[in-house]
UniProtKB/TrEMBL annotation:
Domain PAS: from-to ranges: 37-89
Membrane topology: Multi-pass membrane protein
Intracellular or extracellular location(s): Membrane
Species of provenance: Anopheles merus (Mosquito)
Residues annotated as domain PAC: 92-144
SMART domains assigned: PAC (SM00086)
Biological processes, Gene Ontology terms: regulation of membrane potential
Name by which UniProt lists this protein: PAC domain-containing protein
GO terms assigned for molecular function: voltage-gated potassium channel activity
GO cellular component: a single term: monoatomic ion channel complex
Source organism, top-level taxon: Eukaryota
Entry-linked NCBIfam families: sensory_box
Reactions catalysed, as given in the entry: K(+)(in) = K(+)(out)
Listed Pfam families: PAS_9
Length: 150
């Protein structure tokens, strides 16, 4: 019996293409298998490992909703939006508070994109995570200054 890599051959083509194209570009992303319940992570970039503080071994096979990044300030509404996007196999762009392994919160621009095969079936999810904490803090600081200037 031949060794399996965890995905069917056509999906491995997608996986290899995406991993090769985006990894090493300082992108923070995971790829989730859209054809298995829970959408397990089948690949995570070096950037995502660095951003989250979790090791690759701790990340692999967890769901690509990345619930392990949820914390006290992660809004239930945002959690629900992430689940709805994955279950509906639809795109989502959202600013959400996530938490690193050490408990440090960070503002994340989450971008979930379904990836289709040649049969137009969603086979993978690309979930990109961009740390926007600095920009968000500047935005909030400017908003506070405007409010206090009234």
């Amino acid at each position: 019996m031949p060794a399996r890599k965890g995905l069917l051959a056509p999906q491995n083509t997608f996986l290899d293409t995406i991993a090769t194209r985006f990894d090493g570009t300082h992108s923070n992303f995971v790829l989730g298998n859209a054809q298995v319940n829970g959408y397990p992570i089948v690949y995570c970039s070096d950037g995502f490992v660095e951003l989250s503080g979790f090791s690759r071994a701790q990340i692999m096979q967890k769901g690509c909703a990345c619930r392990f990044l949820y914390g006290p300030e992660t809004k239930d509404e945002h959690k629900s939006m992430i689940e709805t996007s994955l279950d509906g196999k639809t795109e989502l762009k959202l600013e959400v508070i996530f938490y690193k392994k050490n408990g440090t919160p960070f503002w994340c621009l989450l971008d979930i994109v379904p990836i289709k095969n040649e049969k137009r079936e969603v086979v993978l999810f690309l979930a990109s995570h961009k740390d926007v904490t600095t920009a968000k803090m500047s935005e909030m600081s400017m908003s506070d200054e405007c409010d206090s200037g009234k």
